[in-house]
Amino acid sequence: MYNVIIVDDEHMILLSLQKLLEGLEGKFSIAGVAEDGEEALLLLEKQSIDLLITDICMPEMDGLELIEKARNIDPNMKFIIISGYDDFSYAQTAIRYGVSDFILKPIVPGQILSTLDNMYTQMQATKRSYTENNEWVLLLETFKKELVEHIWTFDKEGALEKIMDVIDGFNRLPHYPQSLSQLLENLFRDIENELMNRNANLTNLLPEQIRWSPSTAGTMDIAKQMIRQMIDYVQGSRNLGSRQNVLKAVKYIEAYYASADFSLQEVANYIGVSESYFSRSFKEEMNISFIKYVIQFRMEKAKDLIKNSDRNITEIAFEVGFTDYPHFSKSFKRHYGLTPNEYRKQLLQL
């Protein structure tokens, strides 16, 4: 339900509007009534109001002045004015103040109910659009992270597939406040910044000004072209020999992570480079330190074993390379917010 305040200096009109609104059960809730603008402002400052219905002609503060002050309190508030003026120029002034609709005096119940029904429909549509846009922003953030990873690892096919997911998602939003080209421009600039943060040698991955096409098909082609260009640029800037070594190290980690004395030195020796060089190369390629990567890998293995086996937690701790249970339990809680035992109990309750 939407919270409503009614403002009118005529007591009988206040009572009539209250009665009509009470009949719209489930749509509006009367949060307060006021007989002048000052009294209404006090109500607005104390609670969140969705709709203000106000007479236009009141002593001290008229309806338009009240609306102007109410918009400063909440720019999203909707307004309906009650007026005895059936004048076009006056209506234009009211619209500039953000008024959504008018109720002309004398009060006609059918007209008011129709106006309120229309307002409810508008507010519901705005609410749905707002929710959809919020969900889209969160999804877009996930898409952006995935695109960065695809470009960073030269996965051209994955990146092109992901940019199509972005475009498909955009096309399902009828009320998104940006055009497709604006959205892609912002997305690509964010990706460019993220890639430059990973490698300071990367500069100007994208043209200073991307010339987007006015057609959707043309915009899609340019988006794909920008993806290919960024991958080629990143690929050309990287030491491919170093990347091959890191990929070799990742496979070694997957094979020997359970060893209690597994170490950075051991893997560097296996690759045939110095410990410091390997540590630096690993961080640059994987965007995570070697130590954190190994712990994260062990945590994922432990979580999988807790979920899919009946082995006791201490056995699992040793199995993923920990030499003492307290250390394992603290690391697990740091990663997942629960101790291993709490996580298993939670699974049993599902």
From TrEMBL:
Pfam families named among the record's database cross-references: HTH_18 (PF12833), Response_reg (PF00072)
Residues annotated as domain HTH araC/xylS-type: 247-346
Alphabetical list of CDD domains matching this protein: REC_YesN-like (cd17536)
PROSITE patterns, A to Z: HTH_ARAC_FAMILY_1, HTH_ARAC_FAMILY_2, RESPONSE_REGULATORY
Transmembrane stretches, start-end: none
Keywords: DNA-binding, Phosphoprotein, Transcription, Transcription regulation
UniProt domain Response regulatory: residue ranges: 3-120
SMART domains named in the record: HTH_ARAC, REC
Chain positions with 4-aspartylphosphate modification: D55
The keyword Oxidoreductase is assigned to this record: no
Superkingdom classification of source: Bacteria
Gene3D superfamilies in the record: 3.40.50.2300, Homeodomain-like (1.10.10.60)
Coiled coil: none
Protein name: Response regulator
Organism: Gracilibacillus salinarum
Organism ancestry: Bacteria, Bacillati, Bacillota, Bacilli, Bacillales
